């Protein structure tokens, strides 16, 4: 096997390991905080990131890189715990829109210091250059994955 092939396999497997460890550490960090999980955090972050005040569930699912059904399952738990509200789209009643509640906004404001500390600790050993390269590589990999579907 050539070195490039070995590196690709190593990176591919390591990404799974990284995701699993991030999920475990993120859930550990959020443990005991209103029953929040990292996937629920990610969904609320995607609502904020969408730029729309009330994005559609399908749009949020696309931003998360997951299915409509998986996003709906996570959203249902957030709605049950009072972090988001569902509403029907005014033009197309089949479209479900998501809105962060006041409880959610206050919760994340309270967590901001701990969130920053978590990220600081996670990326502690990386230089600005390494962070920039990592960001570029991840963006290229996401684009490659999107192009595989075409």
TrEMBL record:
Domain annotation HTH marR-type: ranges: 8-143
A single GO BP: response to stress
Q: Which SMART domains match?
A: HTH_MARR
Q: Does the keyword rRNA-binding apply?
A: no
Which terms does the record give in the GO molecular function aspect?
DNA binding; DNA-binding transcription factor activity
Identify the keywords attached in UniProt to this record, alphabetized.
Answer: DNA-binding, Transcription, Transcription regulation
Q: Which domain of life is it from?
A: Bacteria
Q: Tell me which PROSITE patterns the record gives.
A: HTH_MARR_1 (PS01117), HTH_MARR_2 (PS50995)
One Pfam family, please name it.
Answer: MarR
Cite the InterPro entries for this sequence: HTH_MarR-typ, MarR/SlyA-like, Tscrpt_reg_MarR-type_CS, WH-like_DNA-bd_sf, WH_DNA-bd_sf
PANTHER family documented for this protein: DNA-BINDING TRANSCRIPTIONAL REPRESSOR SCOC, TRANSCRIPTIONAL REGULATOR, MARR FAMILY
Official protein name in the record: DNA-binding transcriptional regulator, MarR family
Kindly list the organism's lineage.
Answer: Bacteria, Bacillati, Bacillota, Bacilli, Bacillales
